[in-house]
Each structure stands twice: as structure tokens, then as C-alpha cells.
Amino acid sequence: MALEWDAVSYEALADPMTRWGAAFLERLELRGDECVLDAGCGTGRVTELLLERLPGGRVLAVDASEAMVRAARERFAGEGRVRVERRDLLELEVGEPVDVVFSTATFHWIPDHARLFRRLAAALRPGGLLAAQCGGEGNILRVREATERVMRGERFRGFFEGWEENKEYAGVEVTKARLEAAGFERVRCWLHEEPTRFDSVGKLAGYLRTIILRGHVEALPEEERDPFAVAVAREMAAMDGPLLADYVRLNMLARKPERETATTGVSVQEG
Ligand SMILES: C[S@@+](CC[C@H](N)C(=O)[O-])C[C@H]1O[C@@H](n2cnc3c(N)ncnc32)[C@H](O)[C@@H]1O
């Protein structure tokens, strides 16, 4: 099962993810009556924007974190167009296939993309759309460099012995190949940069602890979590240039074929 999250802090800090989610949504052509799966909905900030695009549609919002699911359920209480379910996307099964799978800021937290894409393809109706954005190749290199230096330092070294980062910042070509292997066609993938500035070391440290270093702090006892995040933020402040997280996003658009050939299972386009 995936990590637990601090949903209250995430809700307060997720402005960058919400901004990118909004921009990604803007480029999607939706009729407005689709049934959309939001894969990794978090507290539902982006789900809410998705819902605005679906006046006659519905959203199935899923997330593996109990705290995130609770927060999303509170957000959409009384909203009949949204159902929130606690699910691991790697085990996903939906009763009714959806028209669109939408996801933001989630797939890099799930290392097994090949399996993830197979589960998402299975959840889509024939002809359905996958539209997703997550951390991609080259993501937060400066942050990772600073983090590694702090992890190697005397204070924290012992906690990280044998610890491995469980993230997948995939590139364009490997993602195209994985999506096609999962049965998708008309696959488009691209990377873009989203450098994100912070006003102060304190603000950056809070953001790192809740979001970017979410997995790292799990390896630490409670009393070392804030000091670790502060040490990484200070290390970043000591680097050349402005105080920023050098985000790179991987975007993907792909279609599930209208039908499969009965004999080979190879997908073909109708018409
Ligand atoms: C950074 S948050 C993104 C939330 C939201 N989509 C947004 O853009 O603000 C990543 C979310 O992915 C969820 N997640 C990670 N691994 C998952 C998995 N295997 N199955 C379902 N959700 C998962 C986490 O619980 C978390 O809520």
C-alpha cells in the first residue's frame, strides 16, 4: 500500500500542484457529460476543478491514503456527482468502465508504471482517454542533490542505511513504450519545466516535509523529521541561484482502442 499523507498540510500547501492541474485540465477537450476517474485525488483540490468541467458528468475519485480520502469525502459531502473511494491504483478494478482517466501529481509515487497503466487501461471503456501529468525525467534534481548531501551527513546517515527512494520519474520514450505495451494508442508524451520559487527557508522546509520528502521522513523518528526538512531547505538555500524546486512534469495523453481483434488481442482503430 502507498504512503499515508498529512492531508491537512497538503491541502494548505498544494498551490503548485493545483496550478499545474488547472493548466493541464484547460488543454483537455471534454464534452461535459463524461464519467471521469481521478486517479490519486488527494484532498480533491484538482478534482473540484475537474468537476467544473463536467456539468452533466460524474467523477470517481480514488486515493490510497486514508487521510486524503477522508478530506476528499468532506470536500464533496452532498455532491452527488462525486464518489470517493480508498483504492490502491495498482489493484484498481471499477464496476463500470469510465470515459476518461485523469491524474495529476500522482504517478511518480507509484514505481511500477507498467502495471499501473494496465490497471488504468482495464478501467477505461473502449475509445476512452487517459490524460495524466506527474513528475518526469530530470525532476527536482537540485532538491535531490541537496537531500542526498543531508542524508549522507553525520546526523541522518544511520536512519537511511539500506533505504531506497521509491519513486519513478520516467522519461518520454519509456513512457510511450509502457503505454503502448498496456494497449494504448495515439500516445503523446512530453516533458515541461515548472520551476517553483519559495520565499523563505521555513516555507520551503514545511513544503519539503509534507510533499517532496514525504517518503524520506517516514524513515525518520518524529523528532528528526522537521530538522531533516530544515537541513535540506538550508542546503538548497546555500546553492547558487534563487530558492526554488526545479520541477519537471511528464504529460501523457493516450487512447484505449475502440476494439481489439479477437484472434491476436492486437488493437485496431475503427473506421
Ligand atoms: C501529491 S498527491 C496529488 C493529489 C492530487 N491529484 C493533486 O494534484 O493535488 C499524490 C497522491 O497520490 C496518492 N497515491 C500514491 N500512490 C497511490 C496508489 N498506489 N494508489 C492510489 N493513490 C496513490 C497519494 O495518496 C496522494 O494523495
Automatic annotation (TrEMBL):
Keyword Methyltransferase attached: yes
Domain Ribosomal RNA adenine methylase transferase N-terminal residue range list: 20-154
One Pfam match: Methyltransf_25
Keyword Methyltransferase: yes
Keywords per UniProt: Methyltransferase, S-adenosyl-L-methionine, Transferase
UniProt-listed InterPro entries: Methyltransf_25 (IPR041698), rRNA_Ade_methylase_Trfase_N (IPR020598), SAM-dependent_MTases_sf (IPR029063)
Leader sequence segment: none
GO MF term (any one): rRNA (adenine-N6,N6-)-dimethyltransferase activity
PANTHER family: TRANS-ACONITATE 2-METHYLTRANSFERASE, TRANS-ACONITATE 2-METHYLTRANSFERASE-RELATED
Protein name in UniProt: Methyltransferase domain-containing protein
Organism: Rubrobacter taiwanensis
